[in-house]
Design a protein that fits this description.
The protein is mainly α and 478 residues long. It contains 15 helices and no strands. The two termini are 54 Å apart. Keywords: Coiled coil.
């Protein structure tokens, strides 16, 4: 009997041990899966970050020769990697190409003539059809084919920035910009209508549907208008009119009224109507996480400089008020000194005795003046002049100190303003890069539908990426 009791205890102990080990194994497996998932995300974000840096480095190479001002040179030094890093990346890419591991270079080389041809057509006329989009159209009719080729996330960014910028934007108003944008959206809405009608006819096997040539024309027109829109945004940046871009993202193109902030619910509804695939959502979410990391240091420095500028403005206002009070006090002292001198000559009407006395006083004054000229009584006169000069210096000393402090504050404010201007332009370039990335993750048809459904407002890429990221994360948790 004791033998069976010991066996039962041993079996129970072994069972508990097995269950404990099983729990540890399950926890290790879950931890391993989480680490693998985190590793995949980090690798993807690293590749995106490298692609973003390569795109900004390409921009430095394209515009470095045009940076004439010190501000632009400083900006270009801060938005990308150094030339040595780019050279090393190019050497690594060439080695990978020789080993046969990189299959995206041939596609990029094939698309280069098409991009150049489309760039020339866009720069010459907004109504000329772009070349090199037929293959994208065929694939897009079968499924969502992204505008940017696989493995080249900054393709659309580079394509747009390689085009000649739009000229004559210095006098452009917000009304003119909204009118131009409205015209683009109207044309793209017509293309979207034809595209959907052709897709419905093809699905219904209707032989009287739209021919393939019509689909090619629609895709060409959409591609041209999207590139025109992005090129206009970049041209406004070059013309230092970034405030127009910010206004366009918040303005109602019909009434020209501005929103306080972008309509997140409207963006979420539009995103749900685009038919984004899970892969597209994952790409947009990953790019948005990287974009926030890139943008965070610039925003933090901007916030700090704005706080310093607010404090400096308050201090400058206090110094200016103190200076005004000192000036008022000085004016009052001068008025008090002038009042006795104005009252002495007009004390009474002159008589013969007073005139005789004044003549004697004049003779005495001339005699004392001649004695002073001869060297008599010169020491008291110099002492009085020195005392008067010291008094005047004491009166003006606070004014001089206030002026020096004011000049120092002014120089510091100018330095902060110049730095804020550089950071704002840097922030715009980062946002332009993210805009090209987000639009590149969509097909041309999805981009056109995005703008049409958002009208009368213009889609804000950061807000659109936010709602897509939130939807993707909620779906992943479910």
């Amino acid at each position: 009997m004791p033998r069976f009791a010991n066996a039962e205890k041993t079996r129970k102990r072994n069972t508990d041990l097995i269950q404990k080990l099983q729990r540890l194994l399950n926890a290790s497996i879950n931890s391993h899966n989480n680490l693998q998932q985190e590793n995949r995300l980090l690798q993807q974000e690293f590749q995106l970050l490298k692609s973003f840096c390569d795109g900004l480095e390409w921009l430095i190479q394209q515009t470095g020769s045009q940076a004439d001002t010190a501000e632009e040179q400083l900006l270009l030094q801060q938005v990308g990697l150094h030339m040595e890093a780019r050279t090393a990346a190019m050497q690594a890419e060439a080695a990978a190409r020789r080993s046969g591991t990189d299959d995206t270079s041939s596609r990029t080389a094939t698309d280069a003539p098409d991009r150049a041809g489309s760039s020339n057509s866009l720069s010459s006329s907004g109504d000329a059809a772009g070349s090199g989009s037929g293959s994208d159209v065929d694939a897009e009719r079968d499924g969502p084919q992204t505008a940017a080729p696989a493995g080249d996330v900054t393709w659309l960014f580079r394509r747009v920035l390689a085009m000649p910028p739009v000229q004559g934007l210095e006098a452009l108003s917000l009304a003119d910009l909204t009118k131009e944008y409205t015209g683009m959206v109207k044309e793209m809405s017509l293309c979207v209508h034809f595209h959907e009608a052709a897709a419905a006819s093809k699905q219904a096997n209707d032989p009287s549907g739209y021919p393939a040539a019509s689909g090619l024309w629609q895709a060409d027109r959409i591609e041209i208008n999207i590139c025109r829109f992005l090129l206009m945004m970049y041209s406004l940046y070059l013309a230092k009119r970034q405030e127009l871009v910010q206004a366009l993202l918040l303005v109602n193109c019909d009434s020209l009224t501005l929103l306080q902030e972008p309509d997140k619910q409207h963006h979420a509804w539009v995103a749900s109507q685009l038919g984004l695939s899970s892969e597209q959502q994952q790409q947009i979410a990953a790019g948005f996480r990287v974009f926030k990391r890139i943008l965070r240091p610039t925003l933090e420095e901007l916030k700090q400089l704005q706080l310093e500028q607010t404090g400096a403005e308050a201090a400058a206002a206090a110094i200016q008020m103190e200076q005004q009070q000192l000036l008022l006090l000085q004016q009052r002292q001068q008025e008090k000194q002038q009042q006795p001198q104005q009252q002495r000559p007009s004390s009474a009407t002159p008589t013969s005795d007073s005139m005789q006395g004044s003549d004697d006083a004049a003779i005495a004054a001339s005699s004392s003046a001649s004695n002073a000229a001869a060297g008599e009584g010169s020491v008291p006169s110099l002492a009085a002049a020195a005392a008067q000069g010291a008094a005047m210096s004491a009166e003006f000393a606070p004014l001089s100190a206030a002026h020096v402090a004011y000049r120092q504050r002014l120089d510091e404010q100018e330095r902060r303003s110049a730095r804020i201007s550089v950071l704002l332009r840097k922030d715009f370039l980062h946002r332009m890069l993210h805009t090209g990335y987000v639009y590149g993750c969509l097909s041309w048809y999805q981009q056109a539908k995005l703008m049409c459904l958002m009208f009368p407002y213009c889609p804000m890429p950061a807000c659109f990426a936010t709602v897509v990221t939130e939807a993707f994360e909620q779906a992943a948790k479910a």
